[in-house]
Design a protein that fits this description.
- The protein is mostly helical and 102 residues long.
- It has one domain.
- It is elongated and about 40 Å long.
- It starts with a helix and ends with a helix.
- The model has no long low-confidence stretch (mean pLDDT 89).
Length: 102
């Protein structure tokens, strides 16, 4: 049990860097609220190959964080809200991109 808790705690420490790594894929997108610009950026296969695993890992660790009472209490609401908002934003971009490929 102790090793499991340590692993979760270590994963939660990585959340800010996972968030940054996701945004880093789109550093050339000027308007960060322009959903279409993000969808166009995902047209590049090499970017998609990086995006999907990064989004998946970020969302997985965010889900763990939101289930952790300690993390919820220790994390400013603005940070938690930003992570949740960004997870939804990127998940939507992923869904739109996948729908366009069908």
């Amino acid at each position: 049990m102790e090793g499991t808790l340590t692993d979760v705690a270590e994963e939660l420490k990585r959340l800010p860097s996972l968030h940054d790594a996701l945004w880093d894929l789109f550093r050339e997108v000027r308007n960060k609220k322009d959903e279409e610009a993000f969808e166009l950026a995902l047209e590049k296969p090499e970017r998609r190959d990086e995006f999907y695993p990064r989004l998946s890992k970020f969302c997985l660790v965010l889900k763990m964080a939101l289930a952790s009472i300690h993390w919820v209490k220790a994390t400013p609401a603005a940070t938690s809200d930003r992570y949740k908002r960004d997870a939804m934003f990127f998940s939507k971009a992923q869904s739109v991109r996948e729908d366009s490929l069908r």
